Queue: 4 jobs
Job 1
Amino acid sequence: MMGKSKLVLVTGGARSGKSDFAERYAAVLPGRHAYVATAFVSDDEMARRIALHRKRRPASWATWEVPRHLPDVVDDLCKQADVVLVDCLTIYFSNYLWDHDGESDDVLLDGALTELRTILKAFRRAGVTAVLVTNELGSGIVPMEHVSRLYRDIMGRINQEAASEADEVYVSVCGITTEWKHRAVILPEVNP
């Protein structure tokens, strides 16, 4: 039986405490839990990071390793879980960027946004609580390399769209997490 869907976005900088918060948030929710890991082991350091994440989460959670093509499995995933934690969109769309290397910037951005929309609609349709982790990028200097600027721009748009669709948006800074969406300043529309 489908429940009421809920989308939760958790963002922050690197090592801000966002994944820990997202795991604790998901853990208190009732039902079957699934953890969608978007990273893959590319070197020893990444293997250690993945092992730490595995160790932190409950053994009862089903782990789905989905570094790419999440829209292809999200329906099956949601049939087996009531709570889905995706960690993280930043790595997922980094993989997307490399898989689509050579496409024009506009085509790549449009494709990434279409993929995100497909994922969010599938979670809504399934009636699960989806907790999505992402990094807030772009608060530092403008990168010198084109691909780094493109990635920053793609993630900025991905994060804005995900936040717009989310029911709750949490921001972690220095291990302190605050809900921001319900505190947002909403300016009136200006008619030209």
Note: Strands lie at 6-12, 33-37, 62-65, 83-87, 129-135, 168-173, 176-179.
Job 2
Amino acid sequence: MCIVFTFVFQNELFACRHWDINSVACIEDKCYVVTLAEYNRFCAKLRMAIEGIRPSRPYVPDPPETYPRKEAIPPHGADPESVFLCRQVYDFRQRRVLKNPL
């Protein structure tokens, strides 16, 4: 059986319920894994910062302080290479791709 994954975004990845134990020495840097809405917001803010555009007003308000994924959102000035989008989960037991519950 051949499984083909199609990536629409450059920094897209799949979550998997498989786990493994790795040494702390393998960690190179911190990364951010975000939902589609969070990724689009990050890309829009990054593009505006690069082009020097200052928004007159936000069209979508920033998440409230009680937002449960507040720690997962990349801060202003985060390296775009360390921000990844996760829209789907690969279930290796059933060999199928599921929608990410986030």
Note: The mean pLDDT is 80.
Job 3
Amino acid sequence: MRELIDDAARAAAHGDVPVSALVLDASGAVIGRGRNERELRHDPTAHAEMIALRQAADATGDWHLEGTTLLVTLEPCPMCAGAILAARVPTVVFGAWDDKAGAAGSVYDLLRDRRLPHRAEVYAGIEAEACAAQLREFFATLR
């Protein structure tokens, strides 16, 4: 998670919310990496998770990302949670909770919703304070 926090700072450097994500294969190798790039790309879908999932799919040659783990500094939003489930990612690890738009247990719990055909195991709050502090600092500079 510390590596992700450092990487997230690069997103803030171009005006994006500092969030970073990695997709690891079953052996722990990085197969996808992303950071928020909505401002950089002028793309509303350029969230860290989406970019990391696309890279992982490219790296494996398959959109089924079974056996992988997604790590991200902020709880995934509904869009990202939907993509995570569509890609069949079985495990999600995140840092800070998102009490405004989180979809992994705070506002919504899409990743574990039994009504959906696929679910993910969620590990929340890893380095939560460091991840949250980075976000607080970013937003404080905007005010």
Note: The mean pLDDT is 97.
Job 4
Amino acid sequence: MCFQRLNHFPLFLTFFLLFHHATPNPIKTVVVMVMENRSFDHMLGWMKRLNPAINGVTGSESNPLSVTDPNSKRFFFKDQAHYVDPDPGHSFQAIREQIFGSNDTSANPPPMNGFAQQAFSMDNTSHMSENVMNGFLPDLLPVYKTLVSEFAVFDRWFASVPASTQPNRLFVHSATSGGATSNVAAKLAAGYPQQTIFDSVYDAGLDFGIYYQNIPATLFYRNLRKLKYVLKFHSYDLSFKLHAKEGKLPSYTVMEQRYMDTKLIPANDDHPSHDVYQGQMFVKEVYETLRASPQWNQTLFLITYDEHGGFYDHVPTPARGVPSPDGIVGPEPFNFTFNRLGVRVPTIAISPWIQKGTVVHGPNGSPTPTSEYEHSSISATVKKLFNLPSFLTNRDAWAGTFEGIVQTRTEPRTNCPEKLPTPVKIREGGPNEDAQMSEFQQELIQLAAVLKGDNILTSFPGKDAIPHSQINKPGA
């Protein structure tokens, strides 16, 4: 199998593009899927065995149980990841310890040596330390194994902020979290007011659509609650396959997963303790639907993860040269200035215009010497692909863009697989209906209540207070 490194365009390729009339922008439909809480090494690190060009793992990577003890037990990174429960730590404080090993954030590059230590502080049986220092064998993730081999994998794509789910999800479509470094329930329910890429696409006369399964997390953007956008939200089960078959997918299409486990339909967002089998099945279904669509030859499908979820990654997070999106400083006690990124996350780009086996290592000094791929790269790339008039913030103006991966061919590939392998279930048994809800799930329930008109901002229970079984109870 032949693999390609996409480090930079060599001189001969530049002349090829100039004189052989490669299509400058064949993409008319961008499809974005943001999965939950897994690091690159945890999900894709062992893909290095399939393609040595990928900056993955070898098994020599390790973390001490105690960073300050030179004789500490060490946890080496293994290939035995399986079903993960409970959820590892991924708060702003936890991530700081994972990256730097302590509260001192002066190291550059960060040592990435505090994952096992931080996990042990949550579970002193070493069970969680072993979980966070483990990755999936490629055969357990056959959908990703095929996509990585057939299309493009980014091995230097970072979360936008070293924080939890919602700050990073806010960055995905707006290139800022509005100053959020944690999941602030009241602000999420009220909605964050910043301009989004949805607004930019709409104002340019293009269309966007959000295909949701439970509750659309994109409604944490206040602007998307406007009446003019109400018809942009579609039921995934009722509309996605139909729209794809008819060639009617919008220019900017967002897929939203099932974030909730229920007795009949399990979650498919990959958030622990959800089975990654369900996530693989969801990706498979979306890919095969797009592959069969008449829009396939003009589509770019991007899969990424909001943040690393507490799982180990060996690549140091960029800690210098990262611009604040908008000058907003995070709340006390950290007063974060948004001058460093989060941990590396899995990211895969899919299109018939992408050369088979592409590995994208980084933007290599473009548009600035310190630019990196991170979630703001999505809005930055969409701006370029659709010729939108302006960036959203300083951050997406700085972020690397990846339109180049669909501009190296004169015609689309015809050998892209029509079907992907079917994965095998990993979790034994069904969803745990009595498990405590995650913070994200609680916020989605609160969002649904607020949109319905119920004011529960002052009475909503704290974190880890609501069991899954409450979802189906009257009034919940």
Note: DSSP finds 14 helices and 13 strands in the chain.
